Amino acid sequence: MYEQIARNKRRTFVMLAAFVLLIAAVAVALGVIFKAGVAIVPIAILIAIAMAWTSYFASDKIALAASRARPADGPEYARYHNLVEGLCIAAGLPKPRLYVVDDPAPNAFATGRNPQHAALAVTTGLLEIMNRVELEGVLAHELSHVRNYDILVSTIAVTAVGAVALMADLGMRFMWFGGRSNRRDNNDSGGLGIILVILAFALLILAPFAAQLMQFAMSRRRELLADVSGVELTRYPPGLISALKKLQGDQAVVHHATRATAQLWIESPLERDEKTEADGSKKSNWLNRKFDTHPPLSERIAALEAM
Amino acid sequence: MFIVIIIVVVLVLLVLFAVVTYNGLVRTRNRIDNAFSQIAVQLKRRHDLIPNLVETVKGYAAHEKGVFEAVTAARSNAINAQSGPPQAQAQAENALSGTLKSLFAVAEAYPDLKANQNFLNLQEEITSTEDKIAYSRQFYNDSVLGYNNKIQAFPGNIFAGMFNFTAREYFEGDPGEQGPVTVSF
Question: Fewer Cβ close by (within 10 Å): the C or N end of chain B?
Answer without folding.
Answer: C
